[in-house]
């Protein structure tokens, strides 16, 4: 195994599957199956999931809503996705804990770093919900922050594309994929990997990011085995 402790970042949109909104139960089950495969190897797994399939704070601001208000609504959307993923993982036989950056004691533990570390050591999958608990920070920032706090070996950013390209491969057929790229080159080339706050946190704390296609079954296992999948960003 190349990585012993990972933070898996999933986008909310990926949970939609072929739907236009909400959660596709088949996609949830596929993700749970992939996560179980690496969990059975003994990998310690933490997960952060976005909320864009339900609500985005930025969209609220565009509609005239106060950004702070909208961001808190977005945090609640991440909790809905986190609960759905938790249920799917537990149906697959994996013990989980959901921790929230906003107190919701009826449905989740409060985020406590030492408690999260202990859960991981005991083989439980820990899902971090509600972002950082602060407006103006994305779930990418939450993923970077939590990964650093729990001493994760890597952030695995599961998306619907198979890595980072020189340009948008959907718009530019000549775009080529990077197997590896430095943080500095991502800055210089203006490539989109994570928002700048999240990205800078990873760079300053020497935490590598791997961007890969989560929708292809087997990719997560290949990454854990050390195979070249997606694009790795490192110092």
What does this structure look like?
The strands form two sheets. Strands 4-3-5-2-1-6-10-11-9 form a nine-stranded mixed beta sheet, with helices on both faces. Strand 1, helix 1 (25-39) and strand 2 form a beta-alpha-beta unit. By secondary structure, the protein is α/β, with parallel strands linked by helices. The chain has helices at 25-39, 57-62, 67-91, 113-121, 139-149, 183-189, 196-204, 219-224; strands at residues 5-10, 44-49, 96-100, 109-110, 125-129, 154-159, 164-165, 177-178, 180-182, 209-213, 231-234. It has a single domain (5-234), classed as 3-Layer(aba) Sandwich (Carbamate kinase), CATH 3.40.1160.
Here the CATH topology equals Carbamate kinase
- Sketch the topology as an H/E string, one letter per element: EHEHHEEHEHEEEEHHEHE
Class by SSE composition: alpha/beta
Would you identify the regions where 5 or more consecutive residues have pLDDT less than 50? none
Q: Would you state the CATH class?
A: Alpha Beta
Shape: globular
Distance from N terminus to C terminus (CA atoms, Å) equals 22 Å
Largest sheet: 9 strands, mixed
What is the share of helical residues? 25-40%
Percent in strands: 15-25%
Task: List the total number of helices.
Answer: 8
CATH architecture designation: 3-Layer(aba) Sandwich
